[in-house]
Amino acid sequence: MGERLADDPAPYYETHIFVCGNRRPEGHPRGDCASKGSEKVRDYMKARIKELGLMNIRVNQSGCLDRCELGPCAVFYPEGVWYRLDSFAAADEVIEKHLQQHGRARNLMIP
Fold first, then answer.
1. Is 91 inside any structural domain?
2. Residue 6 domain-assigned (yes or no)
3. Cis ω on the peptide bond leading into residue 111 (within 30° of 0)?
């Protein structure tokens, strides 16, 4: 991953989260994140982050992140850390450990 240069503009968001919203045809061998609940988890995260008053964080739905068989998945930038977010509880853990404590929810990380 490239490094930030000294004269790069400051990042617009402290953390930018992309949650896979990919849908494949039913029965596809790789599956897809949307049918595993990624859209509900994304909406929950957006609402919860706002409710907690966490600022400068953006949660977006993305197209395919190419890891659907491991999903539902999300990637957090600028760190480039991937998480499996298969429940509201998983989202809460990531919000707490990654966004509030500036650590990692290691048990939810996708290698």
1. yes
2. no
3. no
Residue type at 81 in one-letter notation: V
Here the CATH number for the domain that contains residue 70 is: 3.40.30.10
> Considering only CA atoms, which of 86, 64, 82 is closest in space to residue 74?
82
Which H/E stretch holds residue 37? none
d(C-alpha 41, C-alpha 57), whole Å: 16
Dist CA 1 CA 51 (whole Å):
32
- Each residue of 20-43: b (16+ CB within 10 Å) or e? bbbbeeeeeeebbbbbbbbbebbe
In-domain check, residue 8: no
pLDDT in tens, 65-87: 999 889 899 999 999 999 999 99
Query: Structural domain of residue 84, as residue ranges?
Result: 15-108
Domain assignment of residue 86, yes or no: yes
| Torsion sign across C-alpha atoms 53, 84, 63, 79 | positive
Global pTM value: 0.90
